């Protein structure tokens, strides 16, 4: 992976975007596997905060994860992700979360937490979206409390909220300060306004043109979420166990 080519500009370290990570045929294949991989596929879906999700690799607990076998199609997909991003993912992928977002649905700002290695790759399928990043309050306070540290003080002004446009079939990877110090989420809306806070607004420009969307009341371009979006989140759970004692 050419990191210079795929780094997202004007963000704190580190964000990368592969705009055409998979082809339309590969996207169709992955969606087919998500929705039609065996007679028990409906049992794999659970509902959380109004969206459906599937969990692969094992159930994550505070004490670790009890490893379960990945389906063959997902093993192949993991290999493609790891090959695409190379050393940017410092630990092997052992957990995949599939989220389904109906038009208008989103996910509240959150952090994945310390149970995972501090890097994550997210593949977007079937629909575009804008992911919003917001500096965590404790992270900003820590930066402000150490103004005597020249290196840290120079980064205080970098602690700002921003958005990244995620085209369908893309792969987003973020790590380091973005993972540890920022919340990430997707607005609950049927349309994403491509305003000045979206650091890769140029990537969305052609999409807006193709959709022939009307601008909003402030003449800002808008990307409509007209179909169900499926995301695949690839991570490494730090602590894997053969058995978990929960009590």
Structure at a glance:
This protein is α+β, with helices and mostly antiparallel strands and 247 residues long.
Tell me the span between the first and last alpha carbons: 44 Å
Average pLDDT number: 86
User: Mind telling me the CATH superfamily name?
Assistant: Alpha-ketoglutarate-dependent dioxygenase AlkB-like
Name the assembly state: single chain
The share of residues in helices is 25-40%
CATH architecture: Sandwich
Proportion of residues in β-strands:
25-35%
Radius of gyration: 19 Å
Spans where pLDDT lies below 50 across 5 or more residues: 151-157
> What is the element string, with H for helices and E for strands?
HEHHEEEEHEEEEHHEEHEEHEEE
Choose one word for the global shape: globular
Continuous helix count: 8
How do the strands line up in the largest sheet? Answer: 1-11-8-15-6-3-2
Briefly note the structural class of the backbone. alpha+beta
CATH class: Mainly Beta
Number of strands: 16
Number of domains: 1
Largest sheet: 7 strands, antiparallel
Overview of this protein structure:
There is one protein chain. With 247 residues, this protein is an alpha+beta fold. It has one domain: Jelly Rolls. It has helices at residues 3-6, 24-36, 41-44, 72-85, 137-144, 150-156, 176-181, 201-211; strands at residues 15-18, 46-48, 51-56, 60-61, 64-66, 95-101, 107-110, 119-125, 129-135, 162-166, 171-175, 182-186, 191-193, 222-224, 229-235, 240-241. Strands 1-11-8-15-6-3-2 form a 7-stranded antiparallel β-sheet. The model is unreliable at 151-157 (pLDDT under 50).
């Amino acid at each position: 992976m050419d990191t210079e080519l795929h780094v997202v500009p004007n963000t704190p370290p580190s964000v990368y975007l592969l705009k055409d990570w998979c082809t339309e045929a590969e996207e169709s294949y992955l969606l087919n596997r998500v929705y039609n991989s065996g007679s028990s596929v409906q049992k794999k879906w659970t509902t959380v905060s109004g969206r459906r999700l599937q969990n692969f690799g094992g159930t994550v607990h505070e004490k670790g994860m009890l490893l379960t076998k990945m389906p063959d199609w997902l093993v192949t997909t993991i290999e493609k992700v790891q090959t695409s991003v190379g050393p940017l993912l410092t630990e092997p992928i052992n957990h995949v979360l599939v989220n389904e977002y109906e038009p208008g649905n989103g996910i509240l700002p959150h952090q994945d937490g310390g149970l995972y290695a501090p890097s994550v790759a997210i593949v977007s399928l079937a629909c575009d979206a804008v992911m919003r990043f917001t500096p965590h309050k404790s992270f900003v306070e820590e930066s402000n409390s150490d103004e005597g540290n020249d290196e840290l003080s120079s980064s205080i002004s970098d602690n700002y909220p921003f958005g990244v446009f995620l085209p369908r079939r893309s792969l987003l990877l973020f790590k380091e300060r973005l993972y540890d110090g920022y919340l990430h989420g997707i607005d609950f809306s049927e349309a994403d306004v491509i305003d000045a806070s979206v650091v890769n607004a140029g990537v969305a420009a052609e999409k807006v043109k193709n959709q022939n969307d009307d601008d909003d009341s402030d003449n800002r371009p808008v990307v409509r979420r007209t179909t169900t979006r499926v995301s695949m989140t690839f991570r490494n759970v730090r602590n894997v166990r053969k058995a978990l004692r929960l009590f």
